[in-house]
Amino acid sequence: MSEEKKKKDVIRLEREAVIPVIKPKLIMNLANLIEHSSDRAEFLKLCKRFESMIRSWYFLQFEDLMQLYSLFDPIHGAKKLEQQNLTSEEVDILEQNFLKHLFQVMNKSNFKITTEEEIEVAHSGQYLLNLPITVDESKLDKKLLAKYFSENPQENLPAFSDKYIIFRRGIGLDRTTDYFLMEKVDVIISRLWSWLLRITRLQRIFLRKPLERRENDRKKTDEIYSEAEADLFVERIRIENMELSMRNLLGKITIQEPTFDRIIVVYRRAGTKTKTERGVYVKHFRNIPMADMEIVLPEKKNPSLTPMDWVKFLVSAVLGLVALVGSLEMPKADFWVIAAVLSGLIGYCAKIYFTFQQNMTLYQNLITQSMYDKQLDSGRGTLLHLCDDVIQQEVKEVIILFFILMEQGKATLNDLDLQCEELINEEFGANCNFDVDDAIQKLEKMGVVARDSLGRYYCVGLKRANEIIGTTTEELVLKANQSTISA
């Protein structure tokens, strides 16, 4: 690992499988690479037929998902369950079936469950949220997800996976430029506190475990850099790591934090002694900074002063009282000295209080923003978005792979994987981990791709591919509409 990377606070992120190019742009750019106009027309027709086929394949699965969710919709689901006259055991089976469908759609849409390591990385830094946020676990159900994961075990699940689950997809960057005056004051106080612990040698008691953990994290980072240089590295720029220069302290600074482009949170509220809760909440957010991921957590407790704030408060109160008593014991107690000591004590305590109030205001603003600006949808709307998202991704994968086979001829699976990723990078300036296995299976299922005796893949011609798929329902409806208009 280079010295430059060591000095920076850098997070390693795996490349996403999602293709970050919108479908119309993808199709038109690839079509423009085809030399003959007749072939270009056949390619555009084939792209529409690919989409029609994939939509038909997923229609029944998505219909089952939406029908199941209608029973567990937090708003109307309870009434529909009552109309079904189902036993508790039958409802348990249905809700587990819903979760299985949901997790399958999440996987197809390239969403991943956040792991314990990702949660630790997110919590290891601060961005705009400077208050400790915790979840009121007594308000969350602990049976639904626990049962699902006991029947469908997965590795490296976070500790809270029995109460709620967080899916994430896509990586971005968020930058904020401001003076951050109170935050800078807190950094100065924290560094003075660390210096005091160091010169009194109390850091061995208070900081031993964090230091050990930091060493372990550094070792892990070294291994990551040595083993995964091809992955994406994003730098965190935080106030607590900045240099204490006059320019930084008095002027505006820019901080930076990687974001999860999309986050979906799934949970159920806890029931009561008289009522069993069956509603499942599915909430969809965008552009959430990793360090501020707590803003999407369900059933958050109201923040309070941190233990460090109370330590500062009590230490300053004790020191102020000692100074005050010392002033009173002087032969001639000076009123102005006593007033200065009291003013300093009150001022410092007021500073702690108003810093907390400022952080509370910022917290409320972030929560409001997450609800109105960053929350894309919830419930049925999120599921419909996911279903369409799956289709869009599958169509793009199939189109890109067929185009490569059409242009390059026979190729092995590994070669196709590399060529598809190179095409996306060269033509659209985007990086992704192309899912070649899934795309090749769909093309084989359609009958437009086959393998030779050496295991290499090849495709049929454009015209033949259109003949194999045949006229789609959408084309028949369009032709009927045109006939009606012309008549």
From TrEMBL:
Keywords attached to this entry: Membrane, Transmembrane, Transmembrane helix
Entries under Pfam families matching the protein: DUF3754
Transmembrane segments: 310-329, 335-354
Top-level taxon in the UniProt lineage: Eukaryota
Protein name stated in the entry: Aminopeptidase
